[in-house]
Structure formats: structure tokens, C-alpha cells
Write a structure and sequence with these properties.
Elements (H helix, E strand, L loop, with lengths): L2 E2 L13 E8 L1 H14 L3 E2 L14 H23 L16 H44 L1 H11 L13 H9 L3 E8 L3 H12 L4 E6 L4 E2 L6 E2 L1 E8 L2 H13 L3 E3 L5 H57 L3 E2 L6 E8 L3 H11 L1
Antiparallel strand pairs: 1-2, 2-11, 3-11, 4-8, 4-9, 5-8, 6-7, 10-11
Helix pairs in contact: 1-8, 1-9, 2-3, 2-8, 3-8, 6-7
Protein name: V-type proton ATPase subunit a
GO molecular function: ATPase binding; proton-transporting ATPase activity, rotational mechanism
Membrane topology: Multi-pass membrane protein
Length: about 350
């Protein structure tokens, strides 16, 4: 010990006799020595590099390594919580990983993170497909009556429509030029503005039919509910088509290819329903697999967290040490209770 304070007796809360120690530690034994001292918990180190910027200290890259591991752990924990998988408490506190175990720990975390990320991405892709097919199914089913009405106007099997039915000239024009249409879905809350805009760009020459999708759809990325409306916009001429499509893009509408012949629509809807059933099965299997992965990872999580936290604390402590001139050993200063000195010596012996 270098210096001593007088013992302060008489109060249970007063500190006991302390001594300031100077430690000389071989660099290769530094990590394990600090690990042992940390487990003993009887010393408090002084920062001998208080003038030195955190980024210029000796173990800065190791601290960064720990930060990266903590980031992975936060991601894994968030995914486990998202699926409401319980995280079991640990019975025995793990010690800090020794340098060899650090590599294994990094590998385990890398593997867990990659597997969960891949499963999440797969699920998002599958759910996106599921959303598109569901929307297409609604477009094909709900527009059936719109097409039937349009076809009924001229008694033909083509969607031609007199926008102003009383005007015989317009009717004659409609028979000459087949009516174009685009079909799709648009967010429900945008429908009134969408309708107004279509009216404005066409001077009232777009005929919009719409039907709400009653059940909310799931957003593939967030899982939030989204409400959509199916629409068909009938109009004449290629020139209007590009304008109508631009409005659709502006209002985040999704357009779907919809045949204008009843038999083709019927055929298409059958195919879509079959694909939706298959996709549903695959989605359930993916979810089961993800759940199994998260359950097995959740058992390790608390262990990993403690190990990374201890490891980071060790490197932060080592950054308080000085390197001696010959670079052959590290010098540390710490306060320790006098009666714990044998324990400190033992920890250093175990660590060395």
C-alpha cells in the first residue's frame, strides 16, 4: 500500500480503513486479472488517463467490439419481445468470457442475429406477397358488379359506358371507341381527394366506381392495420390513361391487372384463391420456425448480456491503466479496504 487513511469507527455507514494500492500487471494477464478483481468486488480503480480522450485510449477497439455485441443483443431482445417470448432468468451468474470465449460469443451472437434477420425478411416478403394477392382477390371479386353494369349499358361483353347516357352522340362515340379502365386499391382515407383529383384532371370524364374492403389488411413491415378501398376508373382514350395513372401514383394507389372478360376474371380469381391458401400455410410454417428459434435464443440471452456487460466493464477499467515506459507492464492504482488485501492478492494470483 502506498498511503493509508485513519480508520473511521463508530458508525455502521462510515467507510472502513482504506489503502491506495499500486498494481503492476503483465499485459497478457491484464484482462483476466481485472476479471477476477471485478468478481471479488473489493477495489475501486483510479483513472490514470483522465487527460486522455476516450477515443485515444489503448482498448478503444475492444470497447467498440462490446458496443457492437450490445447492439446485436438489443436487436435480438426486441425481436424476442415482439413475439412475446418469455426470457428466463439465469440461475448462476456467468463470469466474464476469457479471450478465447469472446470469439465464440461473437460467433453465437452473429449466428443468432443473422438467423432472426433472415427469418424476419422472409416473413416480410411472404406477407407482402400475401397482401398483394389479397388485394388482387378483392379487386377481382368486388369489381365484378361494376363490369356487369358497364357491359349492361351497351349489351356487349366489353366495358363501354356512356358517361352521359342521355346524349346519343356521346353514346355513339362510346360504341366507336372502347372504354379504357384501371383497377386497384387505394388507402380508404384518401378516397374523397382521389375522386376529386380524377374529376379535375378529366373535366368529369372519368367514371369512378368504388367498394370498401371491410376487413383491415396487415402492413407486412409493421403489422399495423391498413384500410383500403377497391376502385375501377373507366375513361376514354390513351391520353387520359397516363394522367389517371399519375394520379394513382400520387395517391399511393396500387394498380392490378384485371381482365375485361368475365371468364378470364373468374379463372384468375380461382388461381389467386389457391395461391393464397398455399401462402397461408407457408406463413404459418415460417412463424413456427421463427418462434422455435426465438425460444432457444431467449434461454441464452441473459447469459450473453451479463457476459458482454462484464467484458465491457473490464475494457473500460483497463483504459484507466497506464503503460510503463518499457511497455512490459500495465500500472494501475486502486483503493481497497485494508482487510480485503489478501483477497485482492488472491484475485491477482488467480488472474495472472
Amino acid at each position: 500500500g502506498v498511503s493509508k487513511e485513519k480508520p473511521k469507527m463508530g458508525s455502521f455507514f462510515r467507510s472502513e480503513e482504506m489503502t491506495l494500492c499500486q498494481l503492476f500487471i503483465q499485459p497478457e494477464a491484464a484482462y483476466s486479472s481485472v476479471a477476477e478483481l471485478g468478481e471479488a468486488g473489493s477495489v475501486q480503480f483510479r483513472d490514470l488517463n483522465s487527460e486522455v480522450n476516450a477515443f485515444q485510449r489503448k482498448f478503444v477497439s475492444e470497447v467498440r467490439r462490446c458496443d457492437e455485441l450490445e447492439r446485436k443483443l438489443r436487436y435480438i431482445e426486441a425481436e424476442i419481445n415482439k413475439d412475446n417470448v418469455p426470457i428466463p432468468e439465469i440461475e448462476d451468474m456467468p463470469k466474464a468470457p476469457n479471450p478465447r470465449e469472446i470469439t465464440d460469443l461473437e460467433t453465437s451472437l452473429e449466428k443468432a442475429e443473422n438467423e432472426i434477420m433472415e427469418l424476419s425478411q422472409n416473413a416480410v416478403n411472404l406477407k407482402s406477397n400475401f397482401l398483394e394477392l389479397t388485394e388482387l382477390k378483392h379487386v377481382l371479386e368486388k369489381t365484378e358488379t361494376f363490369f356487369a353494369e358497364q357491359e349492361g349499358v351497351n349489351g356487349t361483353d366489353s366495358p363501354t359506358h356512356a358517361l352521359i347516357t342521355e346524349d346519343t352522340n356521346v353514346q355513339a362515340a362510346n360504341v366507336r371507341g372502347r372504354l379504357e379502365f384501371v383497377a386497384g386499391v387505394v388507402p380508404r382515407e384518401r378516397v374523397p381527394a382521389f375522386e376529386r383529383m380524377l374529376w379535375r384532371i378529366s373535366r368529369g370524364n372519368v367514371f369512378l366506381r368504388q367498394a370498401e374492403i371491410e376487413d383491415p389488411l396487415d402492413d407486412p413491415k409493421t403489422g399495423n392495420e391498413i384500410f383500403k378501398t377497391v376502385f375501377v376508373a373507366f375513361f376514354q382514350g390513351e391520353q387520359l390513361k397516363s394522367r389517371v395513372k399519375k394520379v394513382c401514383i400520387g395517391f399511393h394507389a396500387t394498380l392490378y391487372r384485371c381482365p375485361n372478360v368475365y371468364s378470364e376474371r373468374e379463372e384468375m380469381v380461382k388461381g389467386v384463391r389457391a395461391r393464397l391458401e398455399d401462402l397461408n400455410m407457408v406463413l404459418n410454417q415460417t412463424q413456427d420456425h421463427r418462434h422455435r428459434v426465438l425460444v432457444s435464443v431467449s434461454k441464452e440471452l441473459q447469459n450473453w448480456m451479463v457476459m458482454v456487460r462484464k467484458m465491457k466493464a473490464i475494457y473500460h477499467t483497463l483504459n484507466m491503466f497506464n503503460m510503463d515506459v518499457t511497455k512490459k507492464c500495465l500500472i494501475a492504482e486502486c483503493w481497497a479496504p485494508v482487510r480485503d488485501l489478501p483477497e485482492v492478492r488472491k484475485a491477482l494470483a488467480d488472474g495472472g
